Amino acid sequence: MTGISDHRETGPDATDLPEGPRVALVTGGGGDIGGVTCERLARDGWTVAVTDLDPDAAERVAARIAASGGSARATRMDVADPDDIRTAVDLIGREYGRVDAVVCAAGIEPPQDLAAIEVSAWDLTLDVNVRGPALLAQAVLPWWRRQRSGSLVTITSRTWLGGAHPAYAASKAGLVGLTRSLALELGPIGVTANAVAPSFVRTRFSAQRGDERLLDAYAERARAATPLGVLVRPEDVANAVAFLASDQAARITGEVLHVCAGSQLPLFVR
Ligand SMILES: NC(=O)c1ccc[n+]([C@@H]2O[C@H](COP(=O)([O-])OP(=O)(O)OC[C@H]3O[C@@H](n4cnc5c(N)ncnc54)[C@H](O)[C@@H]3O)[C@@H](O)[C@H]2O)c1
């Protein structure tokens, strides 16, 4: 059987684990959901490696954490680039001597609809949203093995059930499959793997749906479509991630936690 563990590994060579706060590595940490999640993890006592394709965005989040007394470092990492992933994980692992939680918040949605989308956009969507988390887990594996503990939390989307751009929905469904597979593979070394599936959250990401007026109308439709009648906020997603990354969830793995005010439920009539 070939699996994530069969590939060549770089990583830790010492056997002593450093004392001190555990380390959470967050991709897309410069984004809206990723940034709020980094700040929440820092408040929970994690040392946070804020990574993003956009180094300035990552830097701003790390600076906010430091200003409020937390511990963070910013690192540029492009999750679509396998070499970049290995280099960044190596850098972060060697600086802190450990990598405990990995949160995959980096994500993109192609702007075109099915008729217009180009092959390069399909490929990039899958590379960022699915292959990136897989290669990141592979790069962190030596650290998890050494620690015999850890957690992987992927941010998928309610649309893994369908309902978004086909390439995006396919990538987020693929991410659920990946996460569940990794739960099986990583379980024996004490590492959990779970997914968080938010519905529409008003962020920079959603701004691509159009101008403010269009977005207001979309947000209202999204709110009205939930049984709870509310929109999900970045902090709601961060709460779920923080729980699944923590020891409180040490016996939970392979789950998809929908943070979508009930909109994952089949259509209902009120
Ligand atoms: N906003 C929503 O409605 C919503 C709903 C469900 C799921 N999500 C998911 O939540 C996650 C965060 O979304 P957000 O709304 O905060 O969006 P955002 O655009 O604010 O954040 C995404 C971040 O990912 C980074 N990124 C993009 N490509 C990257 C790459 N190749 N390597 C590293 N980083 C890269 C961006 O620079 C950005 O900082 C995404 O995975 C998204 O699919 C968002």
Q: Overview of this structure, please?
A:
With 270 residues, the chain is α/β, with parallel strands linked by helices. The chain has a single domain, classed as Rossmann fold. It contains 7 helices and 7 strands, in the order E-H-E-H-E-H-E-H-E-H-E-H-H-E. A 7-stranded parallel sheet has the order 3-2-1-4-5-6-7, with helices on both faces. Helix 1 packs parallel to helix 2. The termini are far apart. 46% of the residues are buried. The mean pLDDT is 92. Nicotinamide-adenine-dinucleotide (NAD) binds next to helix 1. Nicotinamide-adenine-dinucleotide binds next to helix 1.
Main structural class: alpha/beta
Bound molecules: nicotinamide-adenine-dinucleotide
Rg, rounded, reads 18 Å
Q: In which order are the strands of the major sheet placed?
A: 3-2-1-4-5-6-7
Question: From the structure provided, what is the oligomeric state, counting identical versus distinct chains?
Answer: single chain
Task: Please tally the β strands and state the result.
Answer: 7
Overall form: globular
